[in-house]
Specification:
Layout (H helix, E strand, L loop, with lengths): L2 E8 L3 H16 L5 E9 L3 H9 L4 E3 L2 H6 L5 E4 L6 H10 L3 E4 L7 H14 L3 E3 L7 H11 L6 E10 L15 H4 L3 H17 L2 E9 L4 E3 L16 E3 L5 E8 L4 E7 L7 E9 L2 E6 L5 E6 L10 E4 L20 H18 L7 H20 L3 E2 L2
Parallel strand pairs: 1-2, 1-4, 2-3, 4-5, 5-6, 7-12
Antiparallel strand pairs: 7-13, 8-11, 8-17, 9-10, 11-12, 13-14, 14-15, 15-16
Length: 384
């Protein structure tokens, strides 16, 4: 018989709804998983969001997150809240002996992340952190090619996440622009994905030289229901006290070199998360805005007709066939979350930790902290 796993979600904004949708879709895409998620209870302070949670199938809703953690039906807690609440809710979940899937950056800085990681080790439960871009079939294929030595020894790497959601001065000053609530800005929101992808593909970052900048220092106070995507016409401005942009030069533990960059205020790219990995015999590149494509370059013996080839993800690539029948029919962002949910519940089913969990987030948080330290000192900082 299929094992049912009781799900609790804390925070039913956009990301909470994405998590809930991923669980609902699991039986359709992975009917032989051997476990079936049961949407037990969702928590949110918003009555509208609680009503939406009931509409999509949660058995109960509440305005108190503690009720989710304490509910005996709940085996797994999903934390999709502002960063300031990550540590408190995560620690309560782990102390209750429940499995945890939460969004990055797991708190407001490396101290919060380290506390959650330590609690997870003590609890001996399964954790997951929302580095969903790892699961794109084209990314999975790229990692396999790198590990198989198909591009030779990697010696250059570049990673960026260039987003435009806050490129206008009238974009609302949501909690993401407040250091007391969010911690860092573009670092925790965007650079975390860049760093994790770097670690996932080519290995740990050893040391770096980083810089940060705040390019729009004041923004209008948000309305009650506003987000960082909202635009507000108002002269009531508040100060932005975390960074809009960050970048770093780095050295990997294996000696390769590269660069990282993240911005939330760029004009042009919309959500351009991209990596380029260059080796001694070839190169690979991928970006989120074209997530079903992988660019591949291979050196030829005679040096003739060399150039990048665009590979379209298809049924021959990892996990693609669970969603679409063939290449050219694209997968989307929410599909990556279904793959993430499958990975997490498989780990819960088997009682074995899988990546990415809070340990991987802690490695990432150390790099983010090193970028901030380097930006203050002006020198190179160790990142491990």
């Amino acid at each position: 018989m299929e094992r049912q796993i009781g799900i609790g979600v804390v925070g039913m904004g956009w990301m909470g709804r994405v998590h809930a949708s991923a669980y609902r879709r699991l039986p359709e895409h992975f009917p032989d998983l051997g476990v079936r998620p049961r949407l037990a209870v969702a928590a949110d302070v918003s009555g509208d969001r609680r009503r939406h949670a009931a509409l999509i199938g949660f058995e109960d809703t509440t305005g108190d997150w503690r009720a989710v953690v304490e509910d005996p039906r709940v085996e797994v807690v999903n934390v999709t809240l502002p960063n300031a609440m990550h540590r408190e809710v995560a620690l309560a979940t782990l102390e209750a002996g429940k499995h945890l899937w939460m969004e990055k950056p797991v708190g407001r800085g490396v101290e919060d992340t380290a506390a959650v990681a330590e609690a997870a080790r003590r609890a001996g439960v399964v954790t997951a952190v929302g580095f969903c871009y790892r699961f794109a079939p084209a990314v999975q294929h790229a990692r396999a090619l790198i590990q198989a030595g198909e591009i030779g020894e990697v010696n250059h790497y570049r990673g960026v996440f260039l987003a435009d959601y806050a490129n206008r001065p009238d974009a609302a000053a949501s909690w993401r622009f407040d250091r007391a609530t969010a911690g860092s800005g573009a670092l925790g929101d965007l650079m975390a994905h860049v760093v994790d992808m770097t670690h996932h593909l080519v290995g740990p970052i050893e040391r770096l030289s980083g810089r940060t900048a705040t390019m729009i220092p004041h923004r209008p106070r948000p309305t009650a229901e506003g987000t960082h995507f909202s635009r507000v016409e108002s002269d009531d401005l508040v100060a932005v006290d975390n960074e809009d942009w960050a970048a770093a030069l780095f050295e990997l533990a294996g000696g390769a070199v590269g660069s990282l960059e993240a911005s939330r205020v760029i004009v042009g790219p919309r959500a351009r998360m991209r990596f380029e990995a260059h080796g001694t015999r070839g190169a690979l590149a991928w970006e989120l805005e074209r997530m079903n494509e992988l660019e591949r370059f291979q050196l030829s013996e005679d040096g003739v007709d060399e150039g990048y080839t665009t590979i379209l993800a298809g049924a021959g690539h990892p996990d693609f066939g669970a969603f679409q029948p063939g290449a050219g029919v694209p997968m989307g962002y929410d599909d990556l979350r279904v793959l993430e949910a499958r990975n997490f519940l498989t780990a819960v089913r088997d009682g074995e930790q899988r990546e990415p969990g809070v340990e991987e987030m802690l490695e990432c948080a150390r790099v983010l902290d090193a970028i901030e330290r380097s930006a203050r000192s002006g020198g190179w900082e160790t990142a491990r």
